[in-house]
C-alpha cells in the first residue's frame, strides 16, 4: 500500500480522466489531439495533449481547490514545511507579485534590497507602494552581492516602524546566501513579516549539503521556482506561507488576480510530480546532481580554472553556497566569464550565465554524473588549449572583489513606485542631480542597480556612477552605456 | 520552397536546439529529462521535455524578442490582421490585465459592461481605476446578455469624455455577438480606444460562416484565447494591437510586469503551430468542426432538444452566432441545462457549461465529425429515454427570455475599484442601502452581476434583487443565496 506522499493527486486525476476516453465539447479547442500538420510537433506534444484539460467536474479549480489540487498542495506543504502551499503556473513572478500585492496597499511602505529580481520591482510598481531599497552586503572575497547587513535592517526597522514587510532575495543567482534567521527574528520582534524570493532555492533544506531553507529560517512567505532546480516544467513554481503575520486571504486574492483563470493542468501535474520525487526519495534524489558537481571539481583541479566554493578560503565567513551552482573562473584573470561560457558552448555545454569574471553552471535534479564528466572534460580541454599564457602564481590571483563597497551604509529615503510609463529625456550626467531617474542603471558585476526608474538622482549617486565608469564596469540597462548622459523624467 | 507562413519559427528553433543534443547547465532543473519515478508520467511528458528550455543565445526572449519569437509574432499579426501581436503565456487573463493597466492610470476612468469576465474586474481592481459599468443589451429571444446598446454607449461617452477606453466582451460565452463596428466608430469619433476581450473568438473572421473579428471591426486592442477554439495549449493566448490610439509601450510594459520572466517555450511554440495551421489551411481548417456542428443539428432534429441557432427565428435581428458553439435546450422546458449536461456526461460527452436552460457544447479546431455523431446520438438517445412527457407544442415553448429587461437604462455612476481585501459584515437586505457591497451577486441566467464588491448599494439595486428572488433565479457569488442578507463593507 502506498503512503500518501507516494501519490501524485493531480497527475493521477488527469490519467483517470484520460482513461475514460471522454469526448470533449469543452475548451481547449485541440480536444486532446495534435493536428498541426507538422508531424514532428504532433509526435512531441501528442502523449501530453489528452492531459491538457480544463476545470471539469472530476478535475479541480486552482483558484478554489477542493479536490486533487487541494490534496497536492497539502502534500507540498508537508514536503516543504509550510502551513499552506499554493501551486503557481505563472512562475516565481506570479508569487512575487502576489506576496507584495497581498502585503501592502498603495502608498504603504516596504523594505527590500536593491539587488532584487525584476519581478520584485514590477510588483512594487504594480502595487504603487513606497520601498526603502537597502544596499546589499558584499561578499568581500568575490565581490558578489548578498542580502543587506543585519544592523542596516535593524536601523531601517527602527526608522520605518510602519513598514508592512521586509522582502529578501536568497540565495543569489550565484548560489550564495547568509543565514536568514537573525534577520527574520529581528523583523518578527518588530512585528513585521519577512517575504523571501527563494526562486533559486527550491531544493534548500532537502539535503544535508544544502543550506537551510527560508521556511526553516522562519520566513512568513516564500516563493520558489520549482522549475529551476527541481523537475517541474518551466513556469511551475510554489508559494509557501507559515504563521499569521501575513493575511493569507490577501495573498490568495492577489494570486487569483495575477494568474490565468485557465491554468495549465500539465504544468500543475508537473509540480505535483516534482514534489513527489523529493518527498519519496529524500536526499537521495539529489545524489546524481551532487556527483556531477564533484566530478567537475575533480576534473578542474590542476587546470587554470577554479571553482568558487571548491576551497573554503574563497568563501567569506558566514556565506553559504549552493553545491549545485558550480561557479567557475580563470585563476589568471585573462579569460572573462563570457569567453569561458562561449568556449564551453562550443563544446556543447550550455551554462546558466556569465559575467566579467564568472561562469555559472547550474545543475539540477535532472543532472547526471555524465553531465559533470562532460563539463569537467570541457573545462580541462579549454584550459589545455589556452595554455600557460603565464605561469600560475599560486595564491596571488587577482582579488575577486569588483564591488564598490559601501562603508557603513546609511538608511536611504524611500522610493515611490508607480506603474505608469513616463516621458523621459536624456541629459548630461551632471545635470541629472535632483531629477528623477528614468531608467535602470545596473553595473556588472555585481549587478546591483545604482538607479531605479522613479528614484531621485543624488550627488552621491552621480559620484558612484563616475567611479563605476572609471573602473570600466559594464553598465546594463542604460541607454548610454558610457554614462555621459542618462535618462530622467521630463 | 516553403512560404513564410508555412514556417513555425519558435517550434523550429526548439527542434534545432534539441537536435544539437546540448548538455544543459542552465535552468530548468529537469535538464530535458523526465525522471519522476512514475513511468506513465515519464512517457507522457518525455518527448516534450527537451523543448522545455529557457532563454539562451539561440532561443529568444519573449519580453524583448529579436529572433524566432519576434518572427512568430509578426506571422501571427499577418494571420489575424493586426499591426502588432504579442504571444501570451498567462492566458487571456494576462492580456486583459495588460490592456487595462496599459490604458488607465490609478483613478482614471474606463467604460465597460457589467457582464465581463472576472479577469476584467481583477484588472480594474489591480489598476485602481474608476469604471462605468453599463448594463448589457439582452437578446430578447434567449434572455442572454450581449454588449451594451449603442445609444447607451453614446450617452456614456458624452457624459464621461475623459474616459481612457471602452472595454467590450464579444462574443459572449454562448457564442452570441452583435456588430462591433458602429460602437467602435462612435468611440473613435470621441477619440477613445476600444479594447475587446475576444477570448471566445480567436477563430472569428477565419471562415465565411464565422462572424467578423474585433480587429476587422476596428478595435484597438484585442485579446484572444488561442487555446479555447484553436489548438494552442491551455494558457496560450494572444494580444493584438492596431492603430495609434493606445500607447503600445504601456501595454507592453504591463505585459512584462504581469507575465512570467521565464515563459514556457512549449506553450509559445504551440501558439506558433496553432497560427501556422490556420494561416496555411485557411477556412478549410475549420471544416471538420463545422461538420460536427452540422451532424449534431441533423441528429437532434425531431427530438425534444433544440439548438439555439439552428432556426433563424430563435435569434433576434442583428445577433450573430458562433457555429462552433452548439447551444442546446429542452423545448418542453422540463429538463434544465444542468440535467442535460449530466445526462450527456454519463454518455461520455463533456459539455463546456450549463445553466438553468441551456447546455453549451463548445467545438474547436480539434473537433471531428465523429465527435458530432457522438453528441448527436447521445442527445437523440436521451430524448428517447425522457420520452414524451407531454406532447410537443410546436411554436409554443416557453419564452426563452429569463432576463429582467431594463427599459431605457440610465448611465450609471462610476465605481471606484481597488485591490485591498476588505472587512465585510452581513446585513439584512433592506439595511444595505447606501452602504458598499462586499460581494458579487450574480443571478443566473443571464449571469450579469447585479452588485460588484465596491459598488454603492442603491434602492433600485435592492428592488432588482428582490425581483430576481421572486423569479427564483439562481444567485451565484452571494454568501446567502436566498438574499435575505448581503455582505457589505464594515
Polypeptide structure, described:
- 2 copies of one chain form a homodimer.
- The first copy, chain A, has 490 residues and is of the alpha+beta class.
- Chain A has 14 helices and 20 strands.
- An 8-stranded mixed sheet of chain A has the order 2-9-8-7-5-3-4-16, sandwiched between helices. In chain A, strands 10-12-15-14 form a 4-stranded antiparallel sheet.
- In chain A, helix 5 (118-127) links the parallel strand 3 (109-113) and strand 4 (130-134).
- In chain A, helix 1 crosses helix 10, helix 4 (91-101) packs parallel to helix 5 (118-127) and helix 4 (91-101) crosses helix 9 (248-258).
- Mean pLDDT of chain A is 91; it is low at 391-404.
- The interface between A and B is large, with 113 and 114 residues.
What is this entry, summarized?
The structure is a homodimer of 490-residue chains. Chain A has helices at 9-19, 39-49, 68-80, 91-101, 118-127, 150-159, 181-189, 226-229, 248-258, 265-281, 287-300, 337-346, 369-386, 459-470, and strands at residues 23-25, 84-88, 109-113, 130-134, 166-169, 176-177, 194-197, 221-224, 237-241, 305-307, 320-321, 325-330, 349-351, 353-354, 358-362, 415-416, 424-428, 442-444, 474-476, 485-489. Chain A has 490 residues and is α+β, with helices and mostly antiparallel strands.
Amino acid at each position: 500500500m502506498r503512503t500518501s506522499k507516494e501519490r501524485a493527486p493531480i497527475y493521477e486525476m488527469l490519467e483517470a480522466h484520460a482513461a475514460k476516453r471522454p469526448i470533449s465539447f469543452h475548451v481547449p479547442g485541440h480536444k486532446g489531439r495534435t493536428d498541426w500538420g507538422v508531424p514532428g510537433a504532433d509526435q512531441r506534444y501528442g502523449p501530453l495533449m489528452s492531459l491538457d484539460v480544463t476545470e471539469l467536474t472530476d478535475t479541480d479549480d486552482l483558484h478554489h481547490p477542493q479536490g486533487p489540487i487541494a490534496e497536492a498542495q497539502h502534500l507540498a506543504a508537508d514536503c516543504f514545511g509550510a502551513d499552506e502551499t499554493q501551486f503557481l503556473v505563472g512562475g516565481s513572478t506570479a508569487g512575487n507579485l502576489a506576496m507584495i500585492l497581498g502585503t501592502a496597499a498603495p502608498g504603504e511602505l516596504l523594505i527590500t534590497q536593491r539587488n532584487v529580481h525584476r519581478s520584485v520591482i514590477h510588483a512594487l510598481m504594480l502595487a504603487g507602494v513606497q520601498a526603502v531599497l537597502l544596499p546589499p552586503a558584499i561578499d568581500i572575497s568575490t565581490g558578489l552581492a548578498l542580502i543587506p547587513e543585519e544592523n542596516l535592517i535593524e536601523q531601517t526597522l527602527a526608522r520605518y516602524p510602519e513598514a508592512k514587510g521586509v522582502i529578501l532575495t536568497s540565495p543569489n543567482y550565484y548560489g550564495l546566501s547568509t543565514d536568514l534567521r537573525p534577520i527574520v527574528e529581528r523583523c518578527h520582534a518588530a512585528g513585521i513579516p519577512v517575504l523571501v524570493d527563494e526562486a533559486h532555492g527550491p531544493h534548500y533544506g532537502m539535503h544535508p549539503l544544502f543550506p537551510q531553507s527560508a521556511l526553516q529560517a522562519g520566513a512568513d512567505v516564500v516563493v520558489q521556482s520549482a522549475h529551476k532546480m527541481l523537475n517541474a516544467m518551466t513556469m511551475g513554481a510554489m508559494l509557501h506561507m507559515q504563521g499569521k503575520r501575513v493575511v493569507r486571504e490577501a495573498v490568495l486574492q492577489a494570486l487569483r488576480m495575477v494568474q490565468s483563470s485557465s491554468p495549465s493542468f500539465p504544468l500543475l501535474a508537473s509540480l505535483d510530480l516534482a514534489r513527489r520525487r523529493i518527498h519519496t526519495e529524500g536526499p537521495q534524489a539529489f545524489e546524481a546532481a551532487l556527483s556531477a558537481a564533484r566530478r567537475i571539481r575533480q576534473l578542474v583541479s590542476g587546470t587554470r580554472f577554479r571553482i568558487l566554493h571548491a576551497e573554503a578560503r574563497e568563501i567569506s565567513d558566514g556565506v553559504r553556497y549552493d553545491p549545485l551552482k558550480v561557479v567557475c573562473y580563470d585563476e589568471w584573470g585573462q579569460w572573462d566569464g563570457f569567453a569561458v561560457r562561449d568556449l564551453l558552448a562550443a563544446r556543447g555545454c550550455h551554462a546558466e550565465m556569465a559575467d566579467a569574471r564568472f561562469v555559472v553552471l547550474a545543475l539540477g535534479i535532472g543532472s547526471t554524473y555524465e553531465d559533470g564528466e562532460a563539463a569537467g572534460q570541457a573545462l580541462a580541454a579549454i584550459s589545455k588549449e589556452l595554455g600557460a599564457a603565464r605561469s600560475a602564481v599560486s595564491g596571488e590571483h587577482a582579488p575577486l572583489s569588483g564591488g564598490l563597497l559601501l562603508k557603513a551604509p546609511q538608511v536611504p529615503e524611500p522610493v515611490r513606485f508607480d506603474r505608469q510609463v513616463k516621458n523621459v529625456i536624456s541629459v548630461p550626467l551632471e545635470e541629472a542631480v535632483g531629477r528623477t531617474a528614468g531608467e535602470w542603471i545596473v553595473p556588472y558585476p555585481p549587478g546591483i542597480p545604482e538607479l531605479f526608474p522613479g528614484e531621485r538622482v543624488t550627488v552621491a549617486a552621480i559620484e558612484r556612477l563616475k567611479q563605476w565608469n572609471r573602473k570600466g564596469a559594464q553598465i546594463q540597462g542604460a541607454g548610454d552605456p558610457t554614462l555621459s548622459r542618462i535618462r530622467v523624467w521630463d
